[in-house]
Each structure stands twice: as C-alpha cells, then as structure tokens.
Amino acid sequence: MRALPSHSWYKVIEDREIAELFKIESAEHLQQLESGLLHIEKNPTDIHVMEELFRKAHSIKGSARMLGVISVQTIAHHMEDIFTVAKDGKVALTTSTIEQMYRCVDAMREFVEEAVSGKPATISVDSILGTIAEKAEPVPKKVDTEISKKVLPSPSSKPKPAPLSEPEHVALIEGYKIDTIRVDTKTLDTLITHAGELLVTNTLVNHQFKEIADLLLFCNQWADKLIGYRSLISELEKTTNRAAFDKYYSFYAQEQDRIERLNATVQKLKDKAYGNNARLSFVTKKMEESVRNIRLLPLSTIFKLFPKMVRDIARAMSKDVELFTEGADYTVDKHILEEIKDPLIHMLRNAIDHAIEPPFEREEKGKPAKGSITLRALKVAKGIIIEVEDDGRGLDLEAIKHTALKKELFNDSELNAMNDEQIHSIIFIPGFSTSKIISDISGRGIGLDVVKNKVDILKGKVEVTSFPQKGCTFRIHLPTTLTTTRVFTVCANGRIFAIPVASVLKALHINIPDIFTLEGRKTINFNNQPITVAWLFELLELTQVSENEKPALNSDYKENPVCIIISSGKDKLGLLVDFIIDEKEVILKTYSKILKRVRNIAGAAIIDAGEVCMILNPADLIKSVKKIVVASEPSAKPVKAPKRQTILLVEDTITTRTLEKRILESAGYNVVTAVDGVDALAKLRVQSYDAIVSDIQMPNMDGLTLTAKIRQQEKFKELPIVLVTAMASENDKKQGIKAGANAYITKPAFDHKVFLDCIKRLL
Question: Is 4 contained in some domain?
Fold first, then answer.
C-alpha cells in the first residue's frame, strides 16, 4: 500500500457530508476559474472577469481554510494575489503565466480529491507555488519592490489567516440565511419516481368514479323495483288480510328509507370524492411539473466543459482552434445532459482531428489560420437541436465511397445510385472511419455509430450536412425531457402497445390486396414511394391470441388493417395493427438496469386502470425488419470457416516482440516475426501477410523507412500497417501518416484491447 505523505499540507476531511459538499462546491468554482482563464487568455485586460476570478479563488480559499485543507487554501491565496496585482496593472498575465495558472486549477482539483477521498496527490504544493512566482511577469513599468514581495511570496511561506473580530462574527450570525440547498441527484431521481407514481394513483382514483356511478345506478334500479312492489302491497290493503298488509307495508317503508339513505350517502361520497380528486389532480399535476422542471438543467452545465478540452486537443495536434458556444441557456432533462456529453465530446474530437486543417494548409486555402467550431443549441417546437459546426475541409465523398467499397458495405452500382445525403449517412455505420491513421485522438474504430446509437436511445435523431472545403455540421434533434411522452396506444393481435407520436408520420387504412412484394419485403405505395410494412405482432415475435381473448374488433380488420407509418432518421416503416385506441400523454418508466437493453422496447407506461403498456422503439423496429428479411433469404453459398490471418511483427527488442506476439496469438492470429526493416522486407517477398505491426526505432532500417518502401509497391497499397512506438509527439505521428501507416499507437499509453481492436478494424 502506498504510504500517505508526511508533509504538513495533507488533510482528509472526516465528515463525509461536509466532504461531499466541499467537493461539489469546489468543482463549480474550479470550472468557473478554468472558463475565466480561457477568456482572459483572449482578453488579458478584462478587469471585470479578473475581479470575478478573484472572487472564485477567494471562495475556494475560504472553504478550504474552514476545513483545514491548507494545500487548496494556499494555492487559492496565491492565485488571489496574482489577480489582484494583474487588476492593478503590476503583473502582466502572459500566455505563459496563464498556462501555469491552469496548472494551479488542476492542482487544486487533485488536492480537493485528496482531502475528500484520502487518495494522495501526485504533486507538491511547493512546486506549484514556485512555478507561480517564477512565471508572474512584471509589466514594463516601475513597481514598488515591497508590494511585489507581498503579492508574490516565496514558495516556502504559508499564509496565516487573519481571525475575524467579534463584531464580524455577530454580523455573520445575524445575517445568516439559507437561500439554496443541494440535493443529491439520486434523491431527485427518487422524487421524480414518486411523482410519477402519484400521477398513476391519480389515474386509478379517476377510474373509481365509474365504480361509484355503477353503485348509484344500482341504488336507482333497486328503488325502481321497490316502487313496483308498492302496487302489490296496495292490493293487499283491499283484502281482509290486514295483518299481512301491515307487515309488508312496514317492510316496504323500511327498505325505501334504507335505499334513500344509501343513495344519499353514495351521492355525498361521489361529491366529496369529486372534490378531493379535483384537488389531487391539481396538486399532482403541479408537483409533476415542478419536479420535472427541477430536472431541467441549462446546457451550459456541459457546454462549459468543452472550451478547455478543445484548446488542449488542438494544441496537442499543433492546430489553432477556437470553440464558440450559442444557446447554452436552454434547459433539458438532467438524464439527457448526462447521456449526450460523450457523443458531443466524440464529435468535437473528430472535428479537430479530421475536419480542421493545420494552420499552413488553411492559409494556403485562403482561410484564417485559426479554425473555428461552433457548439450551438436551438429551441424548436418538439424539443431542442444541438449543432456541432466547423469551418474545416468537409466530408470527403470519394474517401467515404472508397472505404465503403473496401469494407464491402456497398458495391459500385449501389454507391453510384446514392445522392450526397445518402453517402454522408454511411459514416454512421458501426466501425466506419476514413481516418488515414488510428491515433490517441480519434479513429480507433469507435465511430459515429456510437453517437447515433446514443441519440437513438434518447429518442432523437442525428443528421449531417457538409460542403467541400467549407465545413460540416452535425445536427442532433433531442426531446427536452424523458419523463413523459405522447403516444398512440394501439391494439396488435389483442395486445396493447404504445408508439411515440413524435415518430409517427401518418396513420391510414390499407387493403391487404394493395400490399406487394419488393426485394423480399412486404411493401405498400405511400406518397409515390415504396414503404416496407410488417404486422406488429409478427415483428415482436408474439404468439397468436385466440379470438375469444381479443377485444371487440371490426369484422374487416384483417382485410382492412390500420397502417401506422413510423420513421427513424431517413428510414420508414409501416406497422400493421388492428386499430388505434387513443392518443395520450404517459409517464415513461424505463426498464430495470438488470435488463439493460430490451430490443424493440423503449420503456413502459401505466395506462387506464393501472394496466402496464410497453412503449415501442421505432429505430429498433426498423432494424428488426431488416434482420428478418436478411434471415429469410437463403444463402447462395455454404458458410466457410474464417481463414486464420497472418501478421508480420517487426520489432528489434526481444521483450516487446515476445509480449506483442503473445497478445496477437492469443487473439487467434498467426504471427511471423522480423528483427528490423531489412528482415521484414525479405520476408514480405516470399510470403503474403494480412497486416504488418512494426516498431519505428530499429537498426539497419527503421519503421518509417520500411513503411515508405512497402507503400512504393502497388500490390501493397492497401496492406494495413500499424506502428507501435515510444515516439509520441505530434510531429512523430505526422511522419507516420506521411510514410503511409494506417495506425499509430504509442507505447507509453499501450493498451492490449486498443491494440487488438485497432488490428481487427483494419482487417
């Protein structure tokens, strides 16, 4: 076990509740400090922002001082000093100074984590403070020496917080007021669940009115029947049997009184229930709306994470890129924010890596040397649109078509029949990438299909628009909340299902004879376009329901079914159902984490008298149709066992060569080894290989020279070459691309899975 540091800066907060609050609060302040530094880097004389940054540093310092986290307190104190003298014009906030202040922010994050979790920090306070003092550069004017010493103390000095005077303490206590509270997100999720259950309960109470109405009807029918007996009793009065008359009349009078009292009681119960239910409905609706609104967070919650990330990735790739954000104040559901973060990160990384050209290339094209990416949010009627727009080179249609042919996704005739929009959509196919080289930034085979799948799960859609050499825009359509959804409830072979209204284009009756077969699929003509159709119960692989179990149906539902046209992206499908029941707003109940993912089902909802109804997933249904068609077509050729592929491994170090050989063989590859580039070329002349894995730094002939020589031969133009090396700089990677490598994996960050995934993708 790693020993805890002995320095006096170390502190672990024992109170777990306080520790968690400190962590959350610090994260907010540190994020705002980071965003402010990004602004100051572009606007070094913005006094207003400097004052705001000073306040953030001061807030962190105050919290850290109260909890005894001296490491965070000390660094925050020194940042305060820098902002103070910068505002006064005594210190210039140069790029170098700001870079070191970024390090201070990162250091405070690490020390906060140390104080909260007990995990020792990997840096020292003294080194950080020394860096600040060294990098703070005086402006070219006379500065009082004593003031400079005061604001830039030596690294060894530690601040001594001045104690509050008694009047200050009294003022703080008297003015103390809790304006906001922090609520754990799990608690909030539980609250929204309870609010949903309350809404379901309210629905059930509404259905009890029918039971009360039935009881009143029974009372009225009973009273009517009793009136009929009154005439019979009157006949007895005319006879001499007075005793019988008195007996039955007394019974009649008692029963009439009882019925009247019962009727009055039920009527009062109905009136009270109506009033109570009206109040319950009002409160339930308001509560559900309020809790739903609590879950709505501004997009700035995640947008603010990206400027620093874009800056760092661009610098690592020797590019100059600026990120602009618009519409960050629009709000969406917390869950959507959490789920859309990774797709946005992936698109931004792709834009920097693939789309934005290097500065010299942009200048040659007449573009500004600095590239720009705009992250934009737009409010629309059915939700929100998030755009990632860049001013780079745009999508390369020929490269997409070439890769599609190489991966045998489409043939020449199919690609030639596609328009630009259809070719653009190919980039969302799993594993598809036109990247010339696999690197640490992107192109590891984790393609845009990840983005599309995530958006599909969120009941959204993604589109792409590209203009050659002008730029590209990825557009994600999303709902603002996932707690409720509007659906059509339909009956399919006696069972009830819900279809999201947002995915429905049209509902119409069709005649069975109008269905024809096209390319092995049941098809109808819709708006002069062929649309595949399928019976919903068959698509869901449900068993038949007997005629006695089915609800009342029109006699011609089999010959004249309802066809609901649904869409997902550009794909469409016609679902054949018995009939449409209703359109309603329902609370979406996601399935348990144990189930993880249920094909064709997006979730469930409680409808009517507590009945559970499955909500269908349109994207999955469309995929299911394609799978069924493929499965139903007989194979023209028998399936052969896959051929074992052979890889040429070129590495001069025996330890590394042995390790990589074992990894490749364990994955099922044949491996032939070579000790340098000369040896590899000799073996390449006498045997064919499916891929080459090579080091760069080797005697006799290095990996770059080997790669270049291989690419000079026409027959090896498409042979996958993976460079695995300790040379990790951006310039080294450029040399690898120039030589003709398909992938560049650095040894310091070597990962077995990434290595094997890379080779699998290239093969």
Answer: no
Backbone CA torsion sign across 688, 691, 692, 693:
negative
Q: Residue 321 pairs with which residues in a beta bridge?
A: 371
399 lies in the same domain as 466:
yes
Q: Is residue 133 part of a domain?
A: yes
At which residue do the structure tokens 């291989």 appear? Answer: 710
644-660 per-position pLDDT tens digit: 899 999 988 776 788 78
Angstrom distance (rounded) from CA 196 to CA 239: 67
Q: Find the range with the poorest average confidence among 3-7, 80-84, 475-479.
A: 3-7
| Mean pLDDT, residues 28-36 | 88
> Which helix (H) or strand (E) covers residue 64, if one does?
helix 47-67
Lowest mean pLDDT among 88-92, 146-150, 243-247, 654-658: 146-150
What gap in Å lies between CA 726 and CA 383, rounded to an integer? 47
User: From CA 514, how far away is CA 344, in angstroms rounded?
Assistant: 44
Whole-angstrom Cα distance, residue 68 to residue 617?
Answer: 53
Gap between the Cα atoms of 616 and 455, Å rounded: 16
Which residue, 294, 326, 349, sits at the end of a domain?
294
Q: What is the dihedral of CA 589, 593, 598, 600, to 10 degrees?
A: 40
Q: Is 638 inside any structural domain?
A: no
Residue 405 corresponds to which tokens in the numbers above?
């042919």
Q: What is the pLDDT of residue 705?
A: 92
The CATH number for 753's domain is: 3.40.50.2300
Could you give phi then psi for residue 661, rounded to 5 degrees?
-60, -45
Residue 3 belongs to some domain of the structure = no
Which one-letter amino acid corresponds to residue 40? I
**CATH number for 97:** 1.20.120.160
Q: In this structure, are strands 521-526 and 691-694 parallel, antiparallel, or unpaired?
A: unpaired
CB atoms within 10 A of CB 731: 9
Picking from 269, 294, 319, the residue at the C-terminal end of a domain is 294
Render the burial of 387-415: b for 16+ CB within 10 Å, e for the rest: bbbbbbbbbebeebbebbeeeeebeeeeb
pLDDT in tens, 159-213: 444 444 455 445 544 555 555 666 666 777 777 777 767 777 777 777 777 788 8
- Comparison of pLDDT for 630 and 268, the residue scoring more: 268
Give 629: exposed, middle or buried? Use CB within 10 Å, 0-12, 13-18, 19+: middle
71: exposed, middle or buried (Cβ count in 10 Å: 0-12, 13-18, 19+): buried
Q: Supply the DSSP symbol for 467.
A: E
How far, in Å, CA of 263 to CA of 217, rounded?
9
**Rounded to whole angstroms, how far apart are CA atoms 139 and 65?**
31
pLDDT for the residue 356: 92
Note whether 468 and 519 are same-domain residues.
no
pLDDT at position 678, please? 92
Quick one: which of 369, 344, 373, 349 has its CA closest to 357?
A: 369
How far apart, in Å, are the Cα atoms of 411 and each of 362, 483, 629, 630? Answer: 34, 43, 19, 17
Domain hosting residue 739, numbered range: 646-762
C-alpha 183/C-alpha 180 separation (Å) is: 10
Segment 50-83, tens digit of pLDDT: 888 888 888 888 788 877 888 888 899 888 888 8
pLDDT for res 544: 60
Count of domains observed in the chain: 5
Q: Do 289 and 306 belong together in one domain?
A: no
Confidence at residue 434, expressed as pLDDT on a 0 to 100 scale = 61
